Amino acid sequence: MVLLQGNFACEMKVKANSPFSGAGEGAIIDGEMAEPDVQIITSGGLRIPAHSSVLASASPVLGSIIEGPQKHRSSEGNIPILGVPCDAVSVFMQFLYSSKCSEEQMENYGIHLLALSHVYLVPLLKRRCTRGLAERLTIENVVDILQLARLCDAPDLYLRCMKLLSNNFKAIEQTEGWKFLQSHDPLLELQILQFMDEAESRKKRTRRQRQEQGLYLELSEAMDCLEHICTEGCMSVGPYDMDPSKNTSPCSKFSTCHGLQLLIKHFAACKKRVNGGCLRCKRMWQLLRLHSSICDSPDECKVPLCRQFKLKVQQDRRGEDARWRLLVRKVVSAKTIYSLTLPKWKREEEPRTTQNHHEIRSFK
Ligand SMILES: [Zn+2]
Ligand SMILES: [Zn+2]
Ligand SMILES: [Zn+2]
Q: Residue ranges of the BTB domain (predicted)?
């Protein structure tokens, strides 16, 4: 029943994984395997007998070749699939019958199968190939696969290639594939360089956002410390009605808390003050104002000036300006965002930017 002609090596392999081994539904009529009624012809001259009903149901393109005018096939029902190794065509046929292909076949014929799945519109195989090739991307093959992904309209694979390229450009620049691309496809070269440029500015943007987020988080921590110092006291600083000697050991947020304590001590003793142009006093003033904007129980609050700031906002008909309100919102949300992203943050190479542990940074 299986008629094979041509290249002997191909013939043996095709027999070993004959497409009929996992026969598709279309080939079985009344519980029996129907006779093959078409033959696939490969570049190597191999003939693979097949069932037109199976081919048509697996691939609309093969379907229209079978049903359409006999332009693409000879009168004997031959359908040529040329331009790829005959073994790749065998694997393709096997997939059309069984929807299966092995990892080894993917390893050997992944690029051909992607091309075939694209040309003959077999989405399931195309997805398999996209995934399979993405797993097998290397510095050496990435340029070739990128070009194939573009030709075959496989955006996921294309993006994976672009990312690998932009992360390993120094090494890839040295490969034969890249040199060939440079001399044959300047447009794609340009697209790659543009992608890398955009990736770089994306990275910069993320870095900036993370730094900003770090600042808000620092402020949020400073707010916790301020309340804690003014309520419970910490080390040598505390509310006037509390004996400061009771809290001599550093707390868990030592660096922020200690910086804040130094600032409070300075604020209490400074002769220049805010209006005299003292920057440290101005910073403390802003922190106190920020606390007041966040504080929801000013009547019991022990933080200095909390109520006064609240009253001032109420009296001032314009209220707080938009920029200040935005700052307050961001400080309030910083902690939530931080706790959500903590595992990722820990992995990143850039820890939160605490530039100076002994001072609270200025923020406006
Ligand atoms: Zn403390
Ligand atoms: Zn001062
Ligand atoms: Zn308060």
A: 36-105
Where are the strands (E) in 261-316, listed by range?
none
Say what the pTM is. Answer: 0.59
Domains of the chain listed by start with CATH number: 1-136 (3.30.710.10), 211-347 (1.20.1020.10)
Residue 296: what are its φ and ψ, rounded to 5°? -110, 5
**What does the angle CA 160 – CA 164 – CA 167 come to, to the nearest 5 degrees?**
140
Q: How far is the CA of 359 from the centre of ligand 2 (A)?
A: 13
- Mind listing the pLDDT tens digit for each residue in 256-289? 899 999 999 999 899 888 788 899 999 999 999 9
Contact 358, 258 (CB under 8 A): yes
Q: From the CA of 203, how far away is ligand 1's center (Å)?
A: 36
Phi first, then psi, for residue 40 (nearest 5°) are -90, 130
- The residues near 125 (Cβ < 8 Å, ≥ 6 apart) are 92, 95, 101, 113, 116, 117
> Region 175-179: what's the mean pLDDT?
93
pLDDT for 20 equals 55
Measured CA to CA, the distance from residue 180 to residue 236 in angstroms comes to 70
Taking the centre of ligand 3 as the mean of its atom positions, its distance from the CA of residue 223, in whole angstroms, is 10
> For residue 36, what is the DSSP state?
P
CA of 228 to the centre of ligand 2 (A): 22
Residues 296 and 314: their CA atoms lie apart, in Å, by 14
CA angle, 8 then 92 then 133, to 5°: 115
Q: What is the pLDDT of residues 53-102, one digit of tens each?
A: 999 999 999 999 888 766 555 556 789 999 999 999 999 999 999 999 99
